[in-house]
Amino acid sequence: MPAAYVKPYVKRGKTDAADAEAICEAVGRPTMRFVPVKSAERLAEFGIVVPKGIHNVDRLLATTEGVPEAARPALGLLADQFRATHDRIAAVTTRIETAQREDPLARRLATVPGIGAITASALAATTPDVAVFRSGRGYAAWLGLTPKAHSSGGKERLGGISKAGNGYLRRLLYLGAMARSEPSRAIGSSTMANARRGKEPGADWLGRMLERKPVKLVAVALANRMARVVWALIRSGESYRA
Question: What residue numbers bound the domain in which 92 lies?
Answer without folding.
Answer: 51-102
